[in-house]
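Table 4 source record.
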Amino acid sequence: MSVILPIVVALAAAFAIEAAATARRVSLRPGDVAIRLGAYALIMAFWFVFSWRPWLAGFSIVTTIVVTVLVNRLKRRVLGEPLVFSDLALLRQVPQHPELYYTTPLTHPKTAVPLLLGAGCAAFWYTVEPAALPHGLGASLAAIVALPLALLALGFAARTRHGRAAFAARFPAPDLEADVARTGVLATMLAYWARRDAEAAAPSPAGKLSLPPGRGDEVVVVVQLESFMDPARLGGPTLPMMERVRGEAVQYGRLTVPTHGAYTMRSEHAALTGREGASLGFGGFDPYLSGGGREPTSLARLARAASYETVFVHPYHPDFFDRAGVMRELGFDRLIMIEDFSDAPRVGPYVGDASVAERILAEVRGRKGPILVFCSTMENHGPWKPGRLAGIDDPLGQYFHHVGNAGRAVEALIDGLAAEEATLCVYGDHAPSLPCYRPGDGDPRTDYALFRFGRPRAGAPQRIDLRIAALGCRLRDAVRSETT
C-alpha cells in the first residue's frame, strides 16, 4: 500500500494537470486513458529507479508534466505546434549553441536558483522519505537490478515485430494535434518515436536516378534565405530586390513551407528532394534525424550523376542538425562551413549574407565544369533580442535590418550570375518567429524567385505560388547531363 498510494495520487494529479492545460476535449476512452497513464507510469518508474522513494518519484512525474505543459504551451504560441519526439533529439543543441535560443546560461540566477532549489528539495526529501526497497540485502539488490532491466526489456519489446504492430495499430499515421488530445504529449512523443524507429528499420525502396532530357545549365545556385519573407508584408520597407524579382525573374511567388519560425531542415529537405513531408511518415518531423540524408534521388545526387560539382555552403557549425553527415549523404562532394568563414565579418552573432554571396560567386568563378551550389544562410536567424545589433533593440527593427542585407546579397548574386548560363533560385525557409508575427498572423507563406540567365526570355515574369516540394521538383529541370 505504501507504494500504490503515491502512484495513484501522482498519476491522477498528472492527468488532471495535463487535461486542464489541453485546449481540446481530453479523450476518456479506456484505451486512450490507459496509454496516457502508461506513459506517466513509465516516466515515474524512470525517476523511481534513482531514488526508490515513491512519493519523491510521484512528485518528479508531476513536475515533469508541469514542465512539459509549460514548454508545450510556449512552443504552440511561438511555432504553432505541440511538442514532438524530434524535439528531444534537438535538446543537445541548446547547450552547444545557446545563441540560437531564448535561453539563459546555467550560471545565470534565473536558471541557477531554480535548479539549486530543486536539487536541494530533492536531497532533503531523499533524507526524509524512507526507501521502498524490500528488506534484506539480497532482495534489495535484486529489486535495484530488476526494475532497470524491466524498463530496458520494455524498450526492446517495443522494437519487436509485435511491439511495432501494436504501436502501428494505435498510431497508424501522424496526426499530431488529434493524438496529443487523445493520449497526451508524453505518450504521443514516445509513440511517435517508436513509429519513426520502425519506419527507419524498414528497408527503403531503391530509387532511380532519372535525369531530365536536354542540356542543363552550366551553373545552378540555390539559396535558402533564413527566415526570409518580403518585409513589406510585415509593414517594413520595400526591398529593391523584390522589385528586381518582379521584373527579372522567370517566376516568383509565395511559397508554402512546412512550418513557422523554425525547423529549417523540413524546408531544406523538401527543396533538395522534392518530397512532401507527409510522404516521409513519422520522419517528416525531422527528415535528417530519420533518414540521415539517404535520398537516392536528391537534387545533389542527380547533379553529381550529370557530372556537376556539388557544393554545400552554410556559414555555421557542421554538427548543427548533423548537416555535415547529412549533406554528404544527400550527394554534396564539398562542404563550405563555419571554419571557411573565420575571417568573414559578423552581422549580429552570425556571418553576414554579403560574405556568403561573395563566397558563392567565388565558387562559380573558380569552377572547372558545371556546378551546383546549395546554400543555407544564417544572418537572419533568431532570436532577435536586445544587444544583437548596436542601436537596434526592437526585434522587428533587427529583422528589417538583416532582411535588407539578404536582399542586397541576392542582388549581388543576380548581378554576378547575369553573364553566366545559370539558374538562380532563392527562397525563405520559414516565416520569422517574431513577437509581432506568430502562427495565425497573416499569410504564413514565404517568398521565392527563380531566375534563368544566358537564355532567351520566354515572356514576362509569372507569379506562380508553389509548395516547397514542387519548387524542389522544378529545380531538377536545371540539372541535366551535357550528353543527353
